From TrEMBL:
Any coiled-coil regions, as ranges: none
Listed name of the protein: CofD-related protein of GAK system
Taxonomic superkingdom: Bacteria
Gene Ontology molecular-function annotations: LPPG:FO 2-phospho-L-lactate transferase activity
InterPro entries reported in the protein's UniProt record: CofD (IPR002882), CofD-like_dom_sf (IPR038136), CofD-rel_GAK (IPR027591)
Pfam families: CofD (PF01933)
Length: 404
């Protein structure tokens, strides 16, 4: 059994308590399954799609999870919108909103179907422009099925997108959810927060999804060979060849054209969310562009250190082109390095990370190296035949809620 600290906020101070944890804890699991509306506030730092399956499963246990998502992507479905409107990336935000959407009739499934619809990649641009027009007019079947006043709200966002859309913008393969978010961003004086809040209500998101920062920036890396790479799309090896050398330093940059390091701020509203969390999780995903990227804004490390709750790292399974040959202890060391940059070099490790959850197949020598830093490592059976080579969402969710 692991013994962990857990913080309980009071009016004038914070009290730290210690309790024995049973893994998994059948009593807590059953209690949360019976009433997820009163479930724990698990806060995740993540991006991309790696956590979406876990997020979908998590809705069975809690409707109060918090997801801080990176808005720095520069590839995939977000790239065209970022170029066209000089805006933060919204693809990962839309993806997580849909993963947490209420899938019952109470969650407006008609809105969900529209948000997850994509224009055909093989269609002619003129035909797609016509299809967009039918959505804005309300005659498209997917829009016509949505009740008022939600239908008019959606039509307005799409209309704003169409009015601002450059002629060169390619609709082929575009996510309708992304177009609605982009229109809302433009409608709200280039602010993400109001449209994320609106979409959360439209699809009945069972949790809270926020961009980790409002700043419109990009990711950059200095490699060990001295090369500088600017842009998330060049770092992930999904759309371009893998990096030629390991990442030496990782930072935010003003744009994609030239090296111009920048700083982002962790908004006060996200700090407040952090202070309400029952557990903080550094989630699976691309190590640098999905996890470390969320820790770069000023104030993130200090907010984490200020909260006395379990702080858990769940490393990704399988190969990650961003980390190359890095071992699990290397990843833990790197994670702490970026956290210490903001929290301060003298901040105790226990304030930033006190637990690593790994699958039972992780070698004991790697566990011993992590444990030597005073970090508890829990080895659990987290991969099933149906989920391999990835985590089975059920045992992972049950492990996390057992720790609250």
């Amino acid at each position: 059994m692991a013994r962990l600290r857990r913080g309980q906020g009071l009016d004038v101070s914070e009290v730290t308590i210690t309790r024995a944890v049973r893994m998994p804890d059948p009593f807590r699991i059953e209690r949360f399954l019976s009433n997820p509306k009163l479930g724990p506030r698990l806060l995740f730092f993540s991006g991309g799609s790696a956590l979406n399956g876990v997020s979908q499963s998590l809705k069975r246990y809690t409707h109060n999870s918090i997801h801080l998502v990176t808005p720095f992507d520069s590839g995939g479905s977000s790239q065209g919108l970022r170029i066209a409107f000089d805006m933060p990336a919204i693809g990962d935000l839309r993806s997580r909103l849909m993963a947490l959407a209420d899938e019952t009739v109470l969650g407006h499934p008609d809105v969900f179907r529209l948000f997850t619809h994509r224009f055909a990649r093989s269609a002619r641009p003129a035909d797609l422009g016509g299809e967009l027009d039918t959505m804005i007019s309300g005659t498209h079947p997917l829009v016509d099925a949505i009740e008022q006043p939600m239908r008019t709200l959606i039509q307005n966002q799409l209309g704003t997108f169409r009015a601002a859309r450059p002629e060169s913008f390619d609709l082929r393969g575009a996510s309708i959810g992304n177009l609605i978010l982009a229109g809302g961003y433009l409608n709200q004086n280039q602010q993400l927060e109001p449209i994320i809040f609106l979409v959360s209500k439209l699809v009945g998101v069972q949790g809270t999804v926020r961009a980790v920062t409002d700043d419109n920036l990009h990711l950059a890396a200095e490699l060990a060979n001295g090369e500088t790479v600017i842009g998330q799309h060049l770092l992930t090896a999904k759309e371009h060849p893998p990096l030629a050398s390991p990442i030496k330093d990782f930072f935010l940059n003003r744009g994609l054209e030239r090296l111009e390091p920048a700083m982002a701020e962790f908004p006060e509203r996200n700090h407040n969310l952090m202070q309400s969390a029952d557990l903080i999780c550094y989630a699976p995903g691309s190590f640098y562009t999905s996890l470390i990227a969320n820790l770069l804004p000023a104030g993130v490390g200090r907010s984490i250190a200020a909260r006395t709750v379990p702080k858990v790292y769940v490393p990704s399974l399988g190969a990650d082109p961003e980390t190359g040959t890095m071992s699990l202890p290397d990843k833990v060391h790197t994670l702490l390095t970026y956290l210490h940059r903001d929290a301060g070099a003298d901040c105790p490790v226990s304030r930033l990370l006190n637990l690593v959850i790994v699958d039972a197949r992780v070698p004991d020598d790697e566990i011993a190296e992590i444990s030597a830093r005073g970090i508890t490592v829990l080895k659990l059976d987290l991969v099933s035949k149906s989920s391999a080579p990835y985590y089975d969402p059920v045992p992972l969710c049950e492990a996390l809620v057992s720790l609250t």
